[in-house]
Design goal:
This protein is mostly beta strands. It is built from one helix and 15 strands, in the order E-E-E-E-E-E-H-E-E-E-E-E-E-E-E-E.
């Protein structure tokens, strides 16, 4: 059980946890390190390029078709680290997990928040963020093979604070961000603004 008083003080601003189907905690991260189920920093789990103050800036998702591997996405809009990801292999360190791929950079977009949306094949998913610098939404396809090199671009610009969340609905076909409600094409990753 994760309670405020049993987490190490340096993850008090916790961003994400990942649990097994029974609800047991497997991983905890605040963006700069990742802890295992014993709340200890896992091997190679320090010095991640996230930021403990990034709002909605850390997320763990299972790697498609690889049940023992997990993507850990982390963002830092305050430096050149930008949006990055690491990979956790749960089979290492006696089943407690270790980071095998670390701090893979996707770019610096001046945005803390991102989200993930399930692909229409119900296996893969889209990593979605807003490019605060260029005024566009970006969607990377995430599969068993990895994260796509080039994102899908959606030319939708708005004035939005860098820390506002990208909030998908339960069905995964819409995202709310700032003032905009957008439709998500789960096959292509493209976003379209929904107008009144």
């Amino acid at each position: 059980v994760v309670e405020e008083n049993n987490l190490p003080s340096d993850v008090s601003h916790c961003k994400t946890t990942f649990c097994d189907p029974a609800g047991n905690v497997l991983f905890v991260s605040a963006g700069t390190k990742v802890l295992n189920q014993d709340f200890e920093v896992m091997p190679n789990g320090n010095n991640l390029y996230g930021n403990t103050s990034s709002h909605y800036g850390t997320m763990i998702v299972a790697r498609p078709n690889r049940p023992d591997e997990f993507y850990l996405f982390h963002s830092d809009s305050w430096s050149s680290n930008g949006l990055t990801y690491s990979i956790i292999d749960r089979t290492l360190d006696d089943g407690n997990g270790a980071v095998t791929v670390k701090n893979q950079n996707l770019g610096d977009f001046g945005q803390e928040a991102f989200t993930c949306i399930r692909h229409c094949n119900m296996v893969d998913f889209w990593l979605v963020t807003y490019d605060q610098v260029e005024g566009r939404y970006l969607s990377w396809l995430v599969t068993e093979e990895g994260v796509s090199d080039e994102p899908v671009e959606s030319a939708i610009e708005q004035e939005v604070k860098f820390s506002y969340p990208l909030t998908p609905n339960a069905k995964g076909d819409r995202i709310m961000h700032g003032h905009l409600l957008m439709e998500v094409d789960a096959a292509t990753g493209a976003l379209t603004e929904i107008l009144d």
